[in-house]
Design brief:
The protein is an alpha/beta fold. The chain contains 7 helices and 4 strands, in the order H-E-H-H-E-H-H-H-E-E-H. The protein has a 4-stranded mixed sheet with strand order 1-2-3-4.
């Protein structure tokens, strides 16, 4: 019987974690491995055609195209559904911009990826998205050069806004934006701008954030 999101996040361990890396169009190779993993786990569990990887893994995480695949798994899609979507999206995502300057412009336009992510995820945030299991999206901050790991775990650090209002809690971030940020590898896609502090008020500017 599939576990609820709360059971995946808070039930006693050990926890099962699935980590997916990037690779652009090579994501289809990752999908091939996921197909086999799903097949083996489906037979082992006796769950029939209703079995999903989100039923087995307590946390699914990824970077670049792996973050997109991880999100689809965490949403409860079967690998066959993910494969169909990925094949349909690939020509849109990996499309070269019309006015690209070699060595200066990103290799691919960000519009296709943004359009596909927004169509699927709409404006869902880490807090309100219909996720079936734990999700971790790995990005990198361009201002500090440090990794930025965002999860849907409500007890994680930085989930809520701080009392002094110096930054936005992770629960507010839209998953579509985070997927685009995770795929924004240098020379492939343009950086994704994400506001980490509340909107400026008429009173003045908020203090600078000290987030890692």
């Amino acid at each position: 019987m599939p576990m609820t999101l709360e059971e995946h996040l808070f039930a006693p361990g050990p926890k099962r974690i699935l980590a997916l890396d990037g690779g652009g169009v090579k994501g289809i190779v990752t999908i091939a491995f996921l197909e086999k993993i799903e097949e083996v786990l489906k037979e082992r569990s006796g769950g029939g055609n209703d079995f999903r990887l989100s039923d087995y893994f307590d946390l699914v995480g990824g970077t670049s195209v792996g973050s997109l695949l991880a999100t689809l798994i965490a949403l409860g899609y079967s690998v066959s559904e993910i494969k169909t979507m990925f094949n349909a999206w690939t020509p849109q995502i990996f499309r070269k911009p019309w006015l690209a300057i070699p060595l200066l412009s990103p290799r691919f336009s960000s519009r296709g990826l943004s359009k596909c992510a927004r169509k699927l995820l709409k404006n869902h945030t880490l807090e309100d998205a219909p996720l079936k299991t734990g999700l971790a999206i790995i990005t990198k901050r361009i201002d500090t050069g440090s990794p930025w790991v965002l999860t849907n775990h409500p007890r994680a650090k930085y989930w809520n806004d701080p009392p002094d209002g110096t930054y936005l809690g992770n629960r507010h971030y839209q998953i579509a934006d985070l997927v685009c940020a995770s795929t924004a590898a240098p020379y492939f896609f343009s950086p994704k701008h994400i506001h980490m502090v509340p909107k400026l008020s008429m009173v003045g500017f908020p203090p600078s954030t000290t987030r890692p």
